[in-house]
Amino acid sequence: MLDAAQPRVPLYARIEAMLRDGIAEGRHPVGGLLPTEAELCDQLQVSRHTVREALRRLVEAGLVERRQGAGTMVVARQPPRDFVQSFRDMRGLSQYAEDTRLQVNGQRMAALTPEEAALVPADPGARWLRLDGVRVAEDRVPIATALVLIHPRFAAIGAELPVRGAIHAEIERRFGVEVREVVQEICAAPLPVPVAEVLGRKPRSVGMRFVRRYLDAEEETMILSLSWHSAERYTYVMRLRRTEAP
Amino acid sequence: MLDAAQPRVPLYARIEAMLRDGIAEGRHPVGGLLPTEAELCDQLQVSRHTVREALRRLVEAGLVERRQGAGTMVVARQPPRDFVQSFRDMRGLSQYAEDTRLQVNGQRMAALTPEEAALVPADPGARWLRLDGVRVAEDRVPIATALVLIHPRFAAIGAELPVRGAIHAEIERRFGVEVREVVQEICAAPLPVPVAEVLGRKPRSVGMRFVRRYLDAEEETMILSLSWHSAERYTYVMRLRRTEAP
DNA sequence: CCCCCGGCGTTGTCCGGACATGCGGGCGGG
DNA sequence: CCCGCCCGCATGTCCGGACAACGCCGGGGG
């Protein structure tokens, strides 16, 4: 059964394909157990190493799960083919080109406004480190306004600004913490008057508002950034690639 | 050197940690080669299987790459910790709740307008299958307008509408093709008058426009969907999780 | 009748060996 | 001096064996 393939196809790959087919065609239903390693060795007359290599790849592909003492369970009939978007840092998420930079005009500890406190969320009146700035292109043309709110526990980072890379990465290094999750909310609304002024747009012309929250393992907000773009000059593009085929 | 750890830590894991530390501390610089399997077996007095298991995990972690005949090269000093967003299908990307559905009001083959042709992109005047519809909540309240343009080579799908799942998935099944990539563009602009009417908003009130292109392996657009939401009722939320730590 | 414990089956870890395959560099020929 | 072939080395594939750790379930005890 196995020796029909070309000799160039490794044995474990043929075993993997056989099991994969059996799963796809329902001979090994989802929720059921695959034959044990010993059974496969017996039936196919191969060594346990070879069988284990085949099974390892099925685990990799997300088709089965293995538990010591319990066996190999089928968990999916087809390998999951998700659409995935991935960023190394937040520059990609923001789509800021390499030649833009955040020009910080001021930093201070200040109480959160009620609106800000609702966004974070945090108690209104809590004092967070606040950075006000403008993202500018290389030619100094303003692209977006930016407000960054940093949890008071990381306020000492203010003394080290500006940082070379992303602020969240610097905070992670400096304080030995970890951003676990980022939540970005995008909505459209007329530009607030002060924002329109900075960006050189007519008051109440259409804008896009980006709120980004950096959460730690406890889902607490470590950093919140709020930025406004002029809609006439900005389109947000996201590109999702499909995970590779089996 | 290795026997200091608890006996509960597998040998290969201790070797993996040792190599990981060596990489992190620069003893094995990025671009350089790790000791060969045989050298590690010799130095650590373990079998080749054990060394290979440790190296396999370093490959898994993205720290090294291996090439038959060439050796094991260090490719990263720290394991990449990307922020990732992942969807099984496009319902998640669109954030449509379970209880919304796309109500298709009409389908026909029609020539692309110049604007549509520029979005796809395709030759103006090409005849694509066009679906016009409205996404409605369970209570029939309109949420967004929707226009779906389908490449003429898949026009036969029109005879099978409505489909149970996502249209792109049905096309993949029916025609044996594969969506490789999805590009979504979000911008803000005043709602076009007909859209405002359907959504029950004032003309030229602020809206968000979503253009989604489904691309095949040759980067050709298979499907394009264009939808408008009222900005007053809609915020786009994206959540990125960090890939797990080493 | 229920619970605990122990045995058996299964996967995990680790050792040994052998040959195949691919890469790269050294060496020889043009 | 350059090109190509060949050989050595590194990883890939595949075989054998042994014991450990863990899950599950049934049997025995309370």
Give the count of helical stretches of chain A: 7
* Helix content, binned percent of chain A: 25-40%
Quaternary state reads: homodimer
Which regions of chain A contain 5 or more consecutive residues with pLDDT less than 50?
A: 1-6
Largest interface comes to:
A-B, 38 and 38 residues
Distance linking N and C termini of chain A: 22 Å
Side by side, the strands of the main sheet of chain A go 4-5-6-9-8-7
The main pleated sheet of chain A reads as: 6 strands, antiparallel
Which percent band covers the strand fraction of chain A? 25-35%
The radius of gyration computed from the alpha-carbon positions of chain A, rounded to a whole number of angstroms, is 27 Å
Quantity of strands of chain A, as a count: 10
Descriptive overview:
The structure is a homodimer of 246-residue chains. Helix content of chain A is 25%, strand content 33%. A 6-stranded antiparallel sheet of chain A has the order 4-5-6-9-8-7. In chain A, strands 1-2 form a two-stranded antiparallel ribbon. Chain A has a two-stranded antiparallel ribbon with strand order 3-10. In chain A, helix 1 packs across helix 3 and helix 2 (37-44) crosses helix 3 (48-60). Chain A is of the alpha+beta class and 246 residues long. In chain A, strand 1 (64-67) and strand 2 form a beta hairpin. Chain A is built from 7 helices and 10 strands. The radius of gyration of chain A is 27 Å and the shape is elongated. Chain A has helices at residues 11-24, 37-44, 48-60, 90-94, 114-119, 167-175, 193-199; strands at 64-67, 71-74, 83-87, 101-111, 127-136, 142-150, 181-190, 206-215, 221-230, 236-242. The model of chain A is unreliable at 1-6 (pLDDT under 50). Chains A and B meet through strand 3, strand 7, strand 8 and strand 10 of A and strand 3, strand 7, strand 8 and strand 10 of B. Strand 10 (236-242) of chain A pairs antiparallel with strand 7 (181-190) of chain B, so a sheet runs across the interface. Chain A binds a DNA duplex (30 and 30 nucleotides) through helix 3.
